[in-house]
Amino acid sequence: MKKLISQMGAGFSTALLISTTAMASMVDNQSSLSAEFSRMPARVAASDSTDAAIYNPAGTAWLEDGLHLSLTGQIVPKDWRHSFEGETFGTTTTSYVPHMFGVYRKGKLGAYAAVAAFGGLGDVTYDDGFSMGRMGPFDFTFHDKTELTYIVPGITTGVSYQISDTLAVSGGVRAIMGVMDGKVDGGEVLEASADASGVAPIFGLSWKATDRLDLALRHEMRTKLEYSVDTLGGNHPLLPVVGSMVAEGDTFRQDFPAQTAIGAMYHITPKWRVAMDGTVAWQKHADRGGAEDQLGNGYYLAYAVEYDLSPKWTLSAGYIMCDPKDNQESMLTVNPKLEYQAIAAGFKYNHSDTLSFNFGVSPYFYDDYTDERGIKMEKETINIGIGVEWRM
């Protein structure tokens, strides 16, 4: 019985504190961080927009001299469901996330900064509760309204430098803060929260291999995150169970994984461009208190095409394939990390030489999954990106 209570407490505590991200490509790392990504997802070698501050920091050295500022917002409707023994639990919470970018370039030197949600995209609400299946004769299905949030906002900043007419490098840092909140409300309430912060360096390389071919590399180092449980309380009957595993002041590790991205963009003609990215999140090397042993190194591939219809209008489309490599036998049902494919389409409108707008839509198609507990998990998500960019 003691082992059973411990397992139940550990499982419920995980669900309460870690809802993970809505649109993360991997288990933690976020990929969709700009409106440009929503319409043209192969961004690693792109150096024509301010979102290069995140995707291609060395590429900021190729922007025009002056100040570039960008504000983008993403709207993410979602329909996630899991079913167990004839009952279905779901959430249709829509997330709203802003991102800001800035680049200043003069001569061979550039400086960049970005504020974004690097590992989170809002929250989920399960009005009818959720299920973790059975353990022996016990049914771990909870019917109380459950609200879960996990977001990793932060800022990245650094400098880029043109070593030559064809080669640029960058170096910078990213400071992030992980925030987890959970609330169960069935008349009687259980609340929990935890947070952590950390800093890690990021390096980049951008090479104009030919007049038509651009290549880029970005590497983000692992960020150590040691979460501290700030709040655990309420009057819910489950509080003693959760409290058997977690207490206020306790700490636990959930590092933000290192990530390596490579990209290529080929200019077929002055108006046509094609691009391809490959990104790996080194999840097995991030300390998660032993949970990393059940993870592989997640990856995603992105392909895209752009066409300049006129000096004012650019059309784009793309495709993503991702395997998060969440190999846990029992996934977290409130947001399982399922394999998916996505398509993207959108446009860029140049209102003037100094003002442009981006719009993109990306529906995500996830593989259904039924785990060893007999819980079937399904997800549907759409990413809508809207952005504006100023050049001064």
Structural account:
- This protein is mainly beta and 392 residues long.
- The chain has one domain: Porin, CATH 2.40.160.
- 8% of the residues lie in helices and 56% in strands.
- The chain has four helices and 23 strands.
- A 14-stranded antiparallel barrel has the order 1-4-5-10-11-12-13-16-17-18-19-20-21-23.
- Strand 10 and strand 11 (167-185) form a beta hairpin.
- The protein is elongated.
Largest sheet: 14 strands, antiparallel, barrel
Basic shape: elongated
Order of helices and strands: HHHEEEEEEEEEEEEEEHEEEEEEEEE
Strand content: over 45%
Pick out its properties.
392 residues; mainly beta; Porin; 14-stranded antiparallel beta barrel; two-stranded antiparallel sheet; 4 helices; 8% helix; elongated
Short description:
This protein has 392 residues and is mostly beta strands. The protein has helices at residues 2-17, 35-39, 52-55, 239-243; strands at residues 66-76, 78-84, 87-91, 95-106, 109-117, 123-126, 130-135, 138-142, 145-151, 153-162, 167-185, 189-208, 213-220, 226-234, 251-253, 258-267, 272-282, 298-308, 313-323, 340-350, 355-366, 369-370, 376-391.
